[in-house]
Amino acid sequence: MAAVAGAALALTLAACTSGPDDDPAPADDASRTVTDGKGASVEVPADPRRIITLSEPTLDGALALGADVVGTTSGRGQGGPPAYLADQATGIPVVATVAGPDIEQILARKPDLILTDGTVSADDAVLGKLADIAPTVYVSKTAADWRTAFTALGEVLGRTAEADQVLAGYDSQVAEVKGKLGEHADDTVSIVRWGSGQPSVLLRELTPSTIVADLGLRRPPAQDREGEGHSQPVSRENLDQLDADWMFFGTLGGPTNPQGGNAGAAAGVAASEKALTSDAVRTPGFTELTAYRNDHVVPVDGSAWASAGGPLAATVILQAVADAMAEPSA
């Protein structure tokens, strides 16, 4: 669905992914005060030029807004930035994992703003160390709606108009895909993360689930509930909880290594295809699921579908739904 793919470019408004640059930006004393996700007031640069993003959503959102990112986190279960952001994040050094930041590496990047949120480990002691380096903003809490979190990020970066434009582009993409679902418009959709031999399902509060809901698609009963901001494990004896008319099946290649991600882990559609054929279909009962019998199990990029993200992840997710479920054009 080329129109949806092309809209990804519209979401990245003059995206600028600054690579390593050891020279700090010119001094600028202008600043603003923002209220972070914990209710604290933080004085931030009016025009930050050397931003560290310590979570997947803040990286995604900063890139979508064309901000200058000079250090970031590895994606969950990966050795580098989230696989779906590989092109946009080229040249940005990894200075953290979801398990925590590397303070020395962050200090070396000479940031003028540090962004984090509730999707990664960041207790008050860590936040205090980061705040000693540069203004540090805890953008949003665990399980915050991705649109609300992105709007807050736009305010922190002083790019509220740009954020509104990105979200308007998202709404247009949703309307486009929704209008082409045809007979599938009322189908049920299961979102499955398959990792380390353990299936999990994504519940209502996570980014992919909210996007599926925006499309008007329904979730099976076992997945149509709120969780705690992460995937919910499902025992192999209860595989029926994975079933629906359609199953979007993703993997992240394994658990995150706290020392720097899982450098050997594969990510993307190919990794999900491998997990499906080498493990899932060998699990007793999986091939009896309705989605499998109807050839409606869709391997997807787990870095976008099975983790936390923002508007750029949303475009990847919408494209996958369109490719799988939209009716062919006449």
From TrEMBL:
Q: Which GO terms describe its biological process?
A: iron coordination entity transport
What SUPFAM superfamilies does this protein map onto?
A: Helical backbone' metal receptor (SSF53807)
| Fe/B12 periplasmic-binding domain location | 50-329
Which Pfam family is one of this chain's hits? Peripla_BP_2
Q: Which Gene3D superfamilies match?
A: Nitrogenase molybdenum iron protein domain (3.40.50.1980)
Instruction: Read off the InterPro entries from this record.
Output: ABC_transptr_periplasmic_BD (IPR002491), Bact_iron-sidero_bind (IPR051313)
UniProt region (Disordered), positions on chain: 16-42
User: Where in or outside the cell?
Assistant: Cell envelope
Q: Keywords for this entry?
A: Signal, Transport
Provide a GO CC annotation, any one.
Answer: outer membrane-bounded periplasmic space
Record-stated family: Belongs to the bacterial solute-binding protein 8 family.
What is the protein name for this chain? Iron(III) dicitrate-binding protein
- What species is given as this protein's source? Mangrovihabitans endophyticus
